[in-house]
Every structure is written in C-alpha cells, then in structure tokens.
Specification:
Its EC number is 4.1.1.20. With about 400 residues, the chain is of the alpha/beta class. It folds into two domains: about 240 residues, TIM Barrel; about 120 residues, Lyase, Ornithine Decarboxylase, Chain A, domain 1, CATH 2.40.37. Helices cover about 30% and strands about 25% of the residues. It has twelve helices and 18 strands. Strands 1, 11, 12, 13, 14, 15, 16, 17 and 18 form a nine-stranded mixed beta sheet that branches. An eight-stranded parallel beta barrel has the order 2-3-4-5-6-8-9-10, surrounded by five helices. β17 and β18 form a beta hairpin. α8 packs parallel to α9. The chain starts with a helix and ends in an 8-residue tail after the last helix.
C-alpha cells in the first residue's frame, strides 16, 4: 500500500484504524504453498487467533486455507465464514470436557494435549478421530511468552510420556489420525525446526492409521528493513524431502499440515494513529498519539519493535521520538526512535499490525475499539465499525442501588 492510500483511509474512516492489505495476505499464502510444492498433500490451516475478522477468514478460505482454532467461538466464526467442519482443526488448552463435546457435535478435527483429557475423551468418543499434540521439549521462539514447546510449557503431552499415551490409546481403542507439535513463534533457526520435526516423525511411528502430521508454525517475519526472518523456501525444500522419505517408510501418503497466523497476516496490517501533541521534557521528545496499549498491546506485552512511519511527512529530516499512547499508565510504542519530524495532526503508521493486534484490543480506560478496513482490489472496504458509547453499555445491566 502507498502512503496516499493510507492517508485517505485515515481521512475517510478516522483514527485510530486498522488497515489490512489483502494482496499481501494472498502473496504470503502462495509463498508458503510454493515452498512445499514438492509435497503431494499439503494443508494450510490459518491460526484464527492472529486476526479473526470474518472477512479475513473468507479471504483465506477462498485461497484454499483451512482454519486452526482454539475456542468454540473461533470454530463458529469459521463456520459463519463458510469454512466446512472438515477444514477446521480445534486445538484447545485447558478447556472443559463440555467444550470438547461441543466441538465433536460441530464435526471438526479434535486435537488433544492432555493425558487425562485424552483418556476421558477416548472412553466417551472412541470412534471420533483425534489428533495428539506432543511437546517435543525444544526451546524455540523469540520471546518466553511465545515459546511453547519447552519442558516447562503447559502445552502438549511430553514426548517422555509416550508409553502412558500409548496405553491410553490401547485401552480405549480410540482413533488417532494425526500427530501435532508447535514449538513457538518467531523461529529463525531452520535446523532447530528440523530437529523438532524428527521428534514428531519418531512419535508418528507408534500409530498405524495416521492421516496427517501437523508441524505447527512459528515462522518469523521481518519487522523492519534488513530484519532477519525465517527462510521458508530453504525450510520447505529440506522438510519436504524428509517428509516424503518418512511417507515412503510409513507406507502411506500422509498430509503435511501447518497452522500459520502471523506469517500470513502480520505484514499485511497497518495501524494508523494521529499525533495529538508533541511534548518536550528535560530529556525526551514524546509524540503523543490518539491510541494506547488498549488497541496495540504487543510492544508492552512482548517487547516488539514495530516500525513507525510518519506518512504525513515521510521525507522530513529525522528526529528522535518516544511514541506514547493516551492510556493512564506507562504506554510506550517506541523509545527514542528516529522518525521524520513529527507535528501535531500528523498520521503515523505502525507496520506489522496484522497479527495479534486488533485481536488483543480491549476497552481499557473505557476507550472504544477502532475500526478495521480491508484494502482489496485498490478499494478500501470497512469490515468493522468503530465502537460507540452505546457499545460500552451494551451488555451492562443496571440495577437499583
């Protein structure tokens, strides 16, 4: 997208506002499928939690993607978007048996990561196909909050508990049709991913009726110019070769499955804010904008460094600014970063705002959640209205006091 397009959107729809470029989502999807073109059966399940607007789900469905979901509500969003149950996998953690039963009724693929739950489920639904999420005990990812395959993680059944797992499967006669792992997000080292994959291959040998192997995701995307990212093409070439070898040994053509979220939508997203004021203190120049971590929490939560552009005056001389929000707490988007000179009223664009940004937004400080706009075929389409005061009161119940 060009600056003029973003500026026009900010003018037409106000700020703050999220903008998603459908062409970038499409190109990322095609890049991933192309990297694994040598695999006969490939399935991409988009991780709904990254960005769950129903129009994004429809776009990905039209590209051929299935969905990776972690709640009943995400399943229902997928169904509402027209995705069929057979293209939805449900991978929860720590949910009730009632929620798992609801997923069974909806007809989606179930993925279980708890021995106790596996036994209960197998006893009650021995014929329902089940995927098992293992924990490979591989530390990977760019932040401890998004590294989920290590030994202290709450996710997955430990690879060291395989004997117990197999005993449950034998006793319940349950139908295991897939094996899954996910080590974390922002994985750079292809060799670490391949090492974890070997653990998954080894686990898969214990099951005779598998249909697919799910390798999770976690590919790192670039956050700024010259930033390093996962070499998906190299990874695709190496894993495809190894996967095809395993299928030959296994005696059956399995489906290779991934569940990318950030990889598909992160770079497609822009978050546009307006500068309310420029404040000089004894040591810092603050650019104070009309948003906060209630709308864009990742810098405060994960320490992410999103590139920030002054799209109103992109060619001005750069000065150092700390970009901060209007929330009544420390609320910092960037510390002492060089940005083209900022004036009050300028529009700033935060890049990589497609994944885990709007989906983590809240009404903290009783602020309205922003609008969402999809840039599709060179046209801006409103896909979520900005909230109003009535929305804040919508589910509140007044009582006599």
């Amino acid at each position: 997208m060009k600056n003029k397009d973003l500026l026009q959107i900010a003018e037409d729809f106000g700020s703050p506002v999220y903008v998603y470029d459908s062409a970038k989502i499409s190109s990322q999807y095609k890049r991933l499928t192309s990297a694994f073109k040598n695999v006969k059966n490939l399935k991409i399940n988009y991780a709904v939690k990254a960005l769950s607007n129903i129009n994004i789900l429809k776009l990905l469905k039209n590209l051929g993607s299935g969905l990776d979901t972690v709640s009943i509500q995400e399943i229902k969003l997928g169904l509402e978007a027209g995705v069929t149950p057979d293209k939805i996998i449900y991978t929860p953690n720590g949910v009730s048996m009632e929620e798992l039963e609801m997923a069974v009724e909806l007809g989606v693929q179930i993925n279980i990561d708890n021995l106790s739950v596996l036994e209960q489920f197998g006893t009650k639904f021995p014929k329902t196909p089940v995927c098992i999420r293992i924990n490979p005990h591989v530390m990977a990812g760019g932040n401890t909050n998004i590294s989920v395959g290590h030994i202290d993680s709450k996710f997955g059944i430990s690879i060291h508990q395989m004997p117990h797992l197999l005993r449950i499967v034998e006793n319940t006669k349950m139908n295991i049709n897939g094996i899954h792992m996910h080590t974390g997000s922002d994985i750079l080292d292809v060799e670490v991913f391949l090492y974890a994959s070997e653990i998954l291959f080894d686990a898969a040998k214990n099951f005779k009726d598998l249909e697919f192997l799910d390798f999770g995701s976690g590919f790192k995307v670039p956050y700024h110019e010259n930033d390093i990212s996962t070499n998906v093409e190299e990874f695709g070439k190496k894993l495809s070769k190894r996967f095809n070898q395993f299928c030959n040994t296994y005696g059956k053509e399995l489906t290779l499955t991934f569940e990318p979220g950030k990889f598909l939508v992160s770079e497609a997203g822009y978050f546009l804010v307006k500068v309310n004021s420029v404040k000089q203190t004894t040591s810092t120049v603050f650019a104070q904008v009309d948003s906060g971590f209630n709308h864009f929490i990742r810098p405060m939560f994960y320490g992410t460094q999103h590139e920030i552009m002054n799209i109103t005056h992109p060619t001005k001389h750069k000065r150092f600014y700390s970009v901060v929000g209007y929330i009544c707490e420390t609320d910092t988007f960037a510390n002492n970063k060089p940005i083209p000179e900022i004036s009050e009223g300028d529009i700033l664009a935060f890049k990589n705002a497609g994944a885990y940004c709007f989906s983590m937004a809240s009404n903290y400080n009783a602020r309205f959640k922003p609008a969402e706009v999809l840039w599709h075929n060179d046209e801006a389409k409103l896909i979520r209205k900005r909230e109003t005061f009535e929305d804040l009161l919508h589910n509140q119940v007044e009582v006599d006091l």
